[in-house]
Structure formats: structure tokens, C-alpha cells
Amino acid sequence: MTRPLLGVVADDLTGACDLAGGVADAGLRTSVTLGVPTEPIPSEVDCAVVALKSRTVEPATAVEESAAAARALAGVRYVYHKYCSTFDSTAEGNIGPVADALVELAGPGAISVGTPATPQVGRTQYLGHLFVDGRLLSESSLRNHPLTPMTHPDLVRVLARQTDRSVGLIDHPVVRRGPTAIADAVAASRGVHRHLLVDATDDADLDHVAEAVLRLERPVVIGGAAGLAVALARTHFPGTSQHSRPSELPQAEPGPRLIISGSGSERTREQVAAFRGQIVRVDPLALAADSSTIQRLTEQLEEAVRRDDSAVLLSATAAPSDVRDAQTELGKDKAAALVEDALAQLAVTAVGKLGVRRMIVAGGETSGAVAAALGAKTLRIGALAAPGVPWTVTTVQDRSIALLLKSGNFGDPDLFETAWTVGP
Ligand SMILES: Nc1ncnc2c1ncn2[C@@H]1O[C@H](COP(=O)(O)OP(=O)(O)OP(=O)(O)O)[C@@H](O)[C@H]1O
Ligand SMILES: O=C(O)[C@@H](O)C(=O)CO
């Protein structure tokens, strides 16, 4: 029996979908489980993805859940630590502690090798510095992220602050020399560094890194965003791309459609601004001030859904200054929890009472909260509505629910209109 190529520990749900959509599109049979799996990985799977909600939790919790996920994935060829393509981390930072735990579990002498570079969505790493659409990370809109503001572009330093282990760089001149040079550089780093970040500015670089990684003496833990995972898929199983294959997902039942946005990202703000249908607004200050707010929102949502059959948008998305005001008044965690809980509760009402069967959710934390409240356990992966944003189907109480779980900065500005045309 062949072993799954990749067992992925993903720090948020939209990141899990991003990676799963990419590797499925490259031809890997892919499963997504929400939370640590309790069942063995099905033997026909090439890539088993475990979606956690560990990006913004206490480091000790992130470590405990990630280690449990890695143990549940025992037997895969490579454990893949999926973090964000913009290296999103809290001030304490969970990427370092989780990477430490995963190399520890991988066995004596293990090393982690990875890169957040995902050129398809404009993320590149050069001389250890991360760029977003050609701008330094710290000068991109990520500096205003509501939970994980990224104000330092030098990832070697960012990661080194999160771990006591030594962090090294395989720089672009080495990457450009090809897989042998990269593999030699990794071999020379064993015993010197415990974590290696690798530059990549285009897909050819990622293919070199993937080929080098597949040749490495194990134990090795691979780290990164979707880019390197997709490069591993196309390097390991060349010629199996699904681009021309129809989606195998079942058709969703007809019914009202809902978009839920708790994302603070710049791209989501553009998508909300471009949306022309009915919008129900969710405000953390109103939620905090009056416990009847959720009842009022429920009524507004019911009315909007019944009024006409176009998609309704339920949105907490606000300008960074408004988010900051709410955080100053309520505290960052309380503001986030109020919004996540309200959106999750309204999602449950939408499915249980209003007959919603197709839903777009914007924001990683928001998607995690919504999917957990719905009771989703696994996702089947379908067609991509945009790079990094696949349609998925989950089964909840014998009902198929189609979910498009969107990372904040992904998708074109008109995604909330166009995504339905490729959905199940
Ligand atoms: N108006 C608001 N005021 C304060 N916090 C908010 C507001 N709207 C949303 N939030 C919170 O901000 C967080 C946004 O994170 P989320 O991961 O969902 O989306 P994102 O900002 O696009 O990030 P990502 O790129 O990871 O998807 C959530 O915890 C959400 O509850
Ligand atoms: O890597 C990315 O950018 C996404 O998959 C993600 O994790 C955003 O939250």
C-alpha cells in the first residue's frame, strides 16, 4: 500500500482549503478534516489535511493541537506545517513553537525546511524578506491585520524571535542553482540550524525546492503556504492536473444563498464594497452594548433572505480605524469573539431555519468559527472559484452544505458575485 505523500497540519481553515484546493487541482486525492482526526486516514488519500484554528491561540495550545494532529497523521511520507503565505503570527507567534514541536516529533536530527512563497497569489520571498504583490510585507495591508499585524518583513528574524532553535536561510542565488545545490545546502545545515527558510520568487524556484525536498534524507518537516505543497504535488505526480476534469462534488440543493464576512482584510473590504445585494451589518460595539442585538440581527437576516432570492451579505467587515476603535473599547480578543460568535450563531440559524445550503465565508478565523458551529467535520474539495479558494461540500445532519471558505486577501473584487457560477 502506498503511503499518503503529505499530512498537513494547517493553522486555519481557509489556509487548509487554500492548500487542499491547490494540491487537488494538481491531481492529489485530498481530504480535509476539521480538528484532530479520530479516524485513520483513508488509504486512497494522497494528501490528508487537518484544519486547526491555532493561528491566534496561546502557543501552548497551538503546540498541543498541532502535535496531536501530527500524531494522527503518522505514516504519511511528509508532515507539512501549513502557515499563512503572509506568515501571519501573533506577537508571541505560534509558527516557531509549532515548528519546534513538529521537528521534535519527526525524530532525532530532524530539520524543518519551508517557505511561505506562493507566487500565484503574489507572495514571494527574497533574501529572507517576504513581499506581497511586490511590496515588503511590512508595507502591505497586512500591517493592519486585526489579529496578526505583520510589521517586520525579514522572516528569518521573525521566526528567530519565536523559537530558541537556530533559524537559517537558503537564499535565492542557491535556489537558482537548482535542486542539487538546495539539497546540498540543507545537508550542510543539519546540525547547525533546526529551521530553514528558503527563498522563492516564482514557480520555477518552488519546483526546484520541491525536487530538493523530495530527495532529502529524512527526517524532515516541510513548512510553508500552499505554493510549496502544490509544487511538491506537481513534482511528485507530474501530469495529473485536474484542470480539465469536471468537479466531482454533488450539486447543492437549491435555496437561499448567504455570504458571511468577518474578515478585516483589504481585499475583503473591496469585495464587500463591490457587492450590490442586501447587506446586514454586524457591529461588535452594538453586540457588546445590548444583548438583544443578536435577536435584531436574526430578524434582519430572515427578512433579507425572504425578500428576494439573490445572495444576502452578513458583514462585520469594517475599515481598520473602526476595527481599532472597537478593539480599544472592548479588547482585541473580546471584539473578535463577539463578532465570531454572532456570525457563527447566525450561520446556524441560516442553515437550520432559513434553508440556506450555499454559503461563502470570508476570513480564516471567521470560517473556523462558522464551520465549527455548523458541526462540519470533513470537507470534500471541488472547483476553484479563484486561486486558493475552492468550493467545498460538508455534510451536516444528512444535509449537504456547499461552503466557499475564503482567506481574507484572496479572490477578485467581484468574487461575491462570480463565485456562484462555478459552485456546486
Ligand atoms: N468590526 C470589527 N471589529 C473588531 N473585530 C472584528 C470586526 N470584524 C471582524 N472582526 C474580527 O477580526 C478577525 C478577522 O480575522 P479573519 O481571520 O476572520 O479574517 P481576515 O482578517 O481576513 O484574516 P485572514 O487573512 O486570516 O483570513 C475575526 O476574529 C473577526 O471576528
Ligand atoms: O496562505 C495563505 O495566504 C492562506 O492560505 C491563509 O492561510 C490566509 O489566512
What would you say this structure looks like, in words?
The structure is a single chain. This protein is α/β, with parallel strands linked by helices and 424 residues long. It folds into two domains: 231 residues, Rossmann fold (3-Layer(aba) Sandwich), CATH 3.40.50.10840; 166 residues, Molybdenum Cofactor Biosythetic Enzyme, Chain A, CATH 3.40.980. It contains 15 helices and 18 strands. The longest helix has 21 residues. It is globular and about 65 Å long. It starts with 5 loop residues before the first strand and ends in a 6-residue tail after the last helix. The model has no long low-confidence stretch (mean pLDDT 94). It binds adenosine-5'-triphosphate and ligand LCNOYBR7. Adenosine-5'-triphosphate binds next to helix 12, helix 13 and helix 14. The site of the ligand O=C(O)[C@@H](O)C(=O)CO has 12 residues, from helix 1.
Sequence-ordered SSE layout with sheet pairings:
Elements: E1 6-10, H1 13-25, E2 30-34, E3 47-51, H2 59-72, E4 78-82, H3 95-106, E5 111-115, E6 123-126, E7 129-132, E8 135-136, H4 155-160, E9 167-170, H5 172-176, H6 179-189, E10 195-198, H7 203-215, E11 220-224, H8 226-236, E12 257-261, H9 266-274, E13 279-281, H10 284-289, H11 293-307, E14 312-315, H12 320-330, H13 332-352, E15 358-362, H14 364-374, E16 378-386, E17 389-396, E18 399-406, H15 415-418
Parallel strand pairs: 1-3, 1-4, 2-3, 4-11, 5-10, 5-11, 9-10, 12-14, 12-15, 13-14, 15-18
Antiparallel strand pairs: 2-16, 6-7, 7-8, 16-17, 17-18
The ligand O=C(O)[C@@H](O)C(=O)CO binds at residues 12, 14-15, 18, 84-86, 225-226, 364, 388, 407.
